[in-house]
């Protein structure tokens, strides 16, 4: 099928052609006609399959078919995303595909001054792409009005829930008009997503272009079993020996990202860190340098890297495995996008064996292990309850009527008060 067969206007088709696209991806081919029919949609697609265009193109078409002459322009389309990076990516797609149309769009997110965002909202905008927190702030200040929303999109819904945005999402939904078209897109599914879909969508068309919670077939996956203290050395070796020009490295913490980045720079590898404590300017510079090839390695946490759209990214490395198995699918989905091939490598120590087992259970397959890593072998078999040593049986309790050595004077075996717990007990870490 060609884009010209999907019922899109000449202006939109011209913009699509200028982006170099002729044929839609499976998610676009299935979603665009359904959205144009006015149906609610629950769409499941692996990251990198083109789902942003899958909802952006038909929404632009619907706006074009029913223009509104009011001034200032009311917000008619609201697209919620979990991160700043994804909000910018979706906003850029809206601008690219709608460049020949008389519509205005604005990206609303935190970490930057709200003044320019407020000015654009006051002038009027048709489409808003926003993160929940900053949008609610502007609503409470009276700068954003959602009462005339006609189309509501919840993008990366699974990540929204993972990041704890469910309360903000519900607050925003309560401010929307009852009559609207709803689109929910998610790369992975969970019981929470199903519950949210039931509450948000009305008689939705369900679209799934791949198995739920699965990785793209274009991504080859490998596991290196290695001690934690040897991970950095192996990573530097892989980058240097393989002459990698671009690799996205995932770590668990912000501090870990900064530390690993400094170590890689000492190894002679051009590197930058990307995490939530970085300013928006620093994050933008790091991402631009990575895309342009000015740096080789981008070390990022999950929150910062969600939604990154990097063309032809060849390598993703899990320096630390994610605590949530579904995040593994999101991580490796940064490579192997739009039909290109990619490689995902995980450096796994013995303490992460349980996390690896959870990932393989989610994928319903075993990830191949590299037999000879060049380092001391590490067992990646998860410790089961059966394999753990049995605890020694406790000694039988003495009859309460018997005195025991160390009993406090004046305490009786029966009816007496129990000794007080020692002060300064264990704290939750």
Automatic annotation (TrEMBL):
Listed GO CC annotations: cytosol
DEAD-box RNA helicase Q domain span: 1-29
Gene Ontology molecular function: any one: nucleic acid binding
GO biological process: one example: ribosome assembly
Domain of life: Bacteria
Assigned EC number: 3.6.4.13
Chain intervals with Low complexity compositional bias: 416-429
Residues annotated as domain Helicase C-terminal: 218-379
Any matching Pfam family: DEAD
Residue positions of motif Q motif: 1-29
Region (Disordered): 379-429
Catalyzed chemical reaction(s): ATP + H2O = ADP + phosphate + H(+)
Basic and acidic residues bias locations: 405-414
InterPro entries reported in the protein's UniProt record: DEAD/DEAH_box_helicase_dom, DEAD/DEAH_RhlB, DEAD_box_RNA_helicase, Helicase_ATP-bd, Helicase_C-like, P-loop_NTPase, RNA-helicase_DEAD-box_CS, RNA_helicase_DEAD_Q_motif
Cytoplasm found in the keyword field: yes
UniProt keyword annotations, A-Z: ATP-binding, Cytoplasm, Helicase, Hydrolase, Nucleotide-binding
Domain Helicase ATP-binding: 32-207
CDD domains named in the record: DEADc, SF2_C_DEAD
SMART domains reported for this sequence: DEXDc, HELICc
Family to which the UniProt record says this protein belongs: Belongs to the DEAD box helicase family.
Protein name from the UniProt record: DEAD-box ATP-dependent RNA helicase RhpA
Organism: Methylomonas koyamae
